[in-house]
Amino acid sequence: MSESVKDRYAVVTGANKGIGFEICKQLASNGVKVVLTARDENRGIAALEKFKGTGICDLVVFHQLDVCDPASVASLAQFVKDQFGKLDILVNNSAIGGAMADEDALRASATPGKENTINMTDWKKILTESHELAVQCIQTNYYGAKRMIENFTPLLESSDSPRIVNVSSSMGKLKNVRNEWAKGILSIVEDLTEEKIDEVLDAFLNDFKDGLLEPKGWPTFMSAYILSKAAMNAYTRILAKKYKNFCVNSVCPGFVKTDLNYNRGILSVEDGAATPVKVALFPEGGPSGCFFDRNGVTSFE
């Protein structure tokens, strides 16, 4: 193992379980020193305990993090600065679905032997969305990731090979946005700005509050999740243009069994983490401003 790999440092958000935990595990297995973060300190410490007795336990440390709390993000940035003096890899994995499930309906929808097979009609019956949940979803999935990037950019600039991996979703592709005005803004890379992304998200939330999602052409199923990931994808492209020496990419891990989808996914967390980790560990001069899925580069559209 080369010294350049041994001396690399990473932060993974939302890492006490699921894909985030497995990303920590796979990065550490590649010799990267990883800061495993979690909003709940007890859950984060419990996650860290799982590394005891493994050959990589010395490569994983825990620090509390709530991406929606500026003070918490600043505290983590100060910790990384004090401990390592730089950051090489930032994985923005924290995400919520923006919907609540009817547990009874979820159980009733399961077909024996095909528990993970739920059609779209059933999902729409199972999940309830609200303006409050939509605000929380966008604040976590988009603005939380943006806050992390803004706070950690100085530390990433101290790296010889800075990487930002935004864990996104194919649901955030522009074909799922539907509102033609919003789609137009988010699709023209040359004109994209952070202010324009804010404008789209504000319009979406206002229309949601006024009950105008369908009349205005917004998605009506997992709407906040779709918009938050579309915004993340747009921000990825802005960052790639702004920071030419960074490697900044969005990644769809696939339909993975996690709490976010009530463990109704198809892929294991090991499979889901593989693509974000692969993108995080691309060789020097790797692609930037791209959207990856398990098959390689895919379209933002």
Q: What's the tally of helices?
A: 11
H/E element order: HEHEHEHEEHHEHEHHHEHEE
Oligomer category: single chain
Mean pLDDT: 89
Helix content: 40-55%
Strand content: 5-15%
Our measurement of the CA-to-CA distance between the termini, rounded to an integer number of angstroms, reads 39 Å
> What structural category characterises the helix and strand content?
alpha/beta
User: What does the main sheet amount to?
Assistant: 8 strands, mixed
> What is the 3D shape?
globular
Describe this structure in words.
- By secondary structure, the chain is an alpha/beta fold.
- The chain is 45% helix and 13% strand.
- The protein contains eleven helices and ten strands.
- The protein has helices at 3-6, 18-29, 41-49, 70-83, 103-109, 120-126, 131-156, 180-187, 194-209, 223-242, 269-280; strands at residues 9-12, 33-38, 60-64, 89-92, 100-101, 127-128, 163-167, 247-251, 290-293, 296-298.
- The strands form two sheets. Strands 3-2-1-4-7-8-9-10 form an eight-stranded mixed sheet, sandwiched between helices. It has a two-stranded antiparallel sheet with strand order 5-6.
- A hairpin with a 2-residue loop joins strand 9 (290-293) and strand 10 (296-298).
- Helix 2 (18-29) packs across helix 11, helix 4 packs parallel to helix 7 (131-156) and helix 9 runs antiparallel to helix 10.
- The protein is globular and about 55 Å long.
